[in-house]
Write a structure and sequence with these properties.
One of its GO terms (biological process) is cell wall organization. This protein has about 375 residues and is mainly alpha-helical. It has 15 helices and three strands. The protein has a three-stranded antiparallel sheet with strand order 1-2-3, covered by helices on one side.
Amino acid sequence: MVSRAERTWFADWWWTVDRLLLFALAALMLAGIIFSLAASPPVAARLGLDAFHFVNRHIMYLLPAIVVLLGVSFLSPRAIRRLALVVFIVSLAMTAATLFFGAEVKGARRWIVLAGVNIQPSEFVKPAFVILVSWLFAESSRKTDVPANTMAVALLVSVVGVLVLQPDFGQTLLVTLVFSALFFMTGMRFVWVIVLAGVGAVGGFIAYSTIPHVARRIKRFLDPSSGDTFQVDAAVESFISGGWFGRGPGEGTVKRILPDSHADFVFAVAAEEFGIVVCLAVVALFAFIVLRSMRRAQRSEDPFARFAVTGLALLFGTQAAINMAVNLALIPAKGMTLPFISYGGSSMISLAYGIGMLLALSREQPRADMIAVPSDIGLAERTA
């Protein structure tokens, strides 16, 4: 056990980091391995691979993700801002490069190959973007003469512009929602609410009118008889089939016919084999992580930390909510992973980077009024 009396870098980290958040994240990662064992073997068999191919790769991605998460959680706020700027510039440039060099998959160019590894750079844009706009909003609250809000909107336009060109409307929606929430925290006037809502509505209409696969997804959601809804229907059936307590590990049948059972629809596989009770426990874990982070943000005296922790928590929680809503056919299908549970290397490592920053910025800091200055102490003693 690490003693509070120790003055080492690890002891300082251990006694200031939110350990309950760490344990909740560890539980999510463990659930991800268990669900991968349940969902991925049939997918591997259909592709002619070893039964545990995706399980092994899931764990292989998880190990560097843990290293990134813990390593970033040691950083200072200044180091986090500097690193986020570098990550944002590099990942945004790589995201733009996918438009020219990326392979087209299902009508979109989101992946680029570097040194034989497939990378989805837009995943890394999101957490870095949250840090940068949080920095700008914090500066805006301190210095009214700095056009920080205008610069934040310019960053949003640059990110959304590249994502729409891919096209990736799921990530666009996620980034815009988080930005809007942070913008609302700055105390924006109601006119900006109307402007943002109007721009979003116009953008959605243009996407619906000009991009065929977006129109097809929305039409299928509104009218299932208008197209193929096989995956969503199978996912919903898995919740019905599993009931409250599931059919038992390895007894699920939906995973044998779902192409993305190990990725986008792993939550549905968990529902069939482990039951709705386990799914509710997973939802509770996500809710705990988000609400606990929000509470830490509320208690922070640093505006930057308050904005950043809130934004990163919203990014994490909204992504999870979108994935689970798709599995339950509550919203049109989006290609978005369930954090730390779905298969996907880029997603897992970028989530680890974001959560690592959240842990670093939510670490307990000594209050200014509790820090005793030696000269003041001596003066107080002499006065007494």
